[in-house]
């Protein structure tokens, strides 16, 4: 089912760690038009940071690849963020979503998907070995009461 968006953008960038902050900031700036609370904005930024970091660290461990970020404003005040890579993929998505599981070595906590899940309303992960991974984050923002003019 294709959801109609009222606004959105797509951004593609190399899987360099320096681009994680850029991606997080781009999503936050775009989401600002939805008038989120500070807490909602921080939740979105944290989830995006984890998703992009996963793509950078795990999809392309030995090379620089491409990460695509798509952000859309969907009906019912839902912000949808899609992070897609064309990297090595995830062998077992269910296992990868378990807290503390990592393929990134001792320096990784294995909490990326757990953190994402705790800061958004819906998290979907699709992956194919050798072809890449797509993570979709959806967060419904609380409607704000507008002051009468």
Describe the fold and architecture.
By secondary structure, this protein is α+β, with helices and mostly antiparallel strands. It has one domain (7-140): Histidine kinase-like ATPase, C-terminal domain (Heat Shock Protein 90), CATH 3.30.565.10. It is built from 4 helices and 5 strands, in the order βααββααββ. It has helices at residues 18-31, 38-59, 93-96, 112-119, and strands at 7-14, 66-74, 78-85, 122-128, 132-140. It has a 5-stranded antiparallel beta sheet, with helices on one face. Strand 2 (66-74) and strand 3 form a beta hairpin. It is globular, with a radius of gyration of 15 Å.
H/E element order: EHHEEHHEE
C-alpha geometry: globular
Q: What is the averaged pLDDT score?
A: 87
Strand proportion: 25-35%
Give the arrangement of secondary structure elements.
Blueprint: E1 7-14, H1 18-31, H2 38-59, E2 66-74, E3 78-85, H3 93-96, H4 112-119, E4 122-128, E5 132-140
Antiparallel strand pairs: 1-2, 2-3, 3-5, 4-5
Helix pairs in contact: 1-2, 2-4
Short description:
By secondary structure, the chain is α+β, with helices and mostly antiparallel strands. Helix content is 32%, strand content 28%.
List keywords for this structure.
single chain; 149 residues; alpha+beta; Heat Shock Protein 90; five-stranded antiparallel sheet; 5 strands
């Amino acid at each position: 089912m294709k959801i109609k968006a009222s606004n959105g953008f797509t951004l593609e960038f190399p899987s360099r760690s320096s681009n994680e902050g850029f991606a997080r900031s781009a999503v936050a700036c775009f989401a600002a038009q939805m008038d989120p609370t500070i807490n909602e904005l921080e939740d979105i930024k944290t989830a995006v940071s984890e998703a992009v970091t996963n793509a950078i660290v795990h999809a392309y461990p030995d090379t620089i690849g491409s990460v695509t970020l798509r952000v859309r404003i969907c009906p019912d005040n839902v912000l949808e963020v899609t992070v897609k890579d064309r990297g090595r993929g995830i062998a077992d998505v269910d296992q990868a979503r378990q807290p503390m599981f990592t393929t990134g070595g001792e320096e990784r906590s294995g909490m990326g998907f757990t953190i994402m899940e705790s800061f958004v309303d819906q998290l979907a992960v699709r992956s194919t070995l050798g072809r890449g991974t797509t993570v979709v984050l959806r967060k419904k923002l609380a409607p704000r009461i507008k002051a009468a003019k």
